[in-house]
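Pipeline run #58 for the internal structure catalog. This entry was flagged by the ingest filter as a single-chain record with no existing model, so it goes straight to prediction. Upstream metadata was stripped on purpose; only the residue string is passed forward. Reviewer on rotation: M.T. Logging verbosity set to normal.
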Amino acid sequence: MMGHDGEEVRGCCAPARGPADRIKARHEDHQAAPAPHGDTTSMVLLPSGQFQMGTNDRDGFAADGEGPVRPVTVSPFWIDTVAVSNDRFGEFVAATGYVTEAEQYGWSFVFAGLLPARVRRDSPRSPEAPWWCAVKGASWRAPHGPGTAVDERGNHPAVHVSWHDALRFCAWAGTRLPTEAEWEYAARGGLDQRRFPWGDELTPGGEHRCNIWQGRFPVSNTRDDGYFDTAPVNSFPPNGFGLYNVAGNVWEWCSDWWTTGHSADPVVNPTGARSGQSRVMRGGSYLCHESYCNRYRVAARTSNEPDSSSGNLGFRCARDA
């Protein structure tokens, strides 16, 4: 783990599967019982607009390509006000029989502090971030591994969902993943160059506005915001566009390939690099803390390989207007 000028810290956010772990996952088309296309019940329509994307702040991570600040114009689009919940993802799985990549691999990463001592002891640690354990049987259905379930977490975000899994859900639902530019435009909620979706102060008036780590990471979480693990998708006040939890709670996949090379020139509807190995993730998670990974800022960004999954990684959907 390193500080704000270190690239190595990226792996702590959501670890990737190693080359030795990789399998040839099945990506069949799942077309049975498609959801109604064009359903915008959980979405908000955002108008076309220009905003200042990125940040030049010194407390950001230069190695993440957060800057330079550049004028970006996006066309109108719809976007979910909340991350896809366990209930919604469960509807997709029930209708299609889809098997997630975590289930195909047989394991996924879970934060060690959420595990019983026996499971922690028996689960290999991530070499880049030892607070992550590779837990056999962990998946969206069993977020902390065997013996856990989502029965009482229907309104929590679906996690252990890979980028490929998210794409399959979107294909079934008649939606798509947002571009990184669309995600940041929506997350800013109309506020120009603010640190957070609600302004520049993390806890205005002492009020918590997001689900992140409080205390000393990774050994002590005071839970001042009310949560140790994920929070319901509609927790905390929404931003100016009506979006919930675009800071903290779970990382969210975007459609773009990862790149750190950005021009300061104006651009319209950017879609990221043409190719790559990792996909963009945005928003931070319940494990982010200012001492090592303040990526719950609205301009912060990171990435992961598209078949990777963890207990703090989910997604929300978008669609063309």
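catalog note: Residues 86-96 form the longest helix (11 residues).
catalog note: Helices lie at 86-96, 101-105, 117-122, 163-173, 180-188.
status: ready for reviewer M.T.
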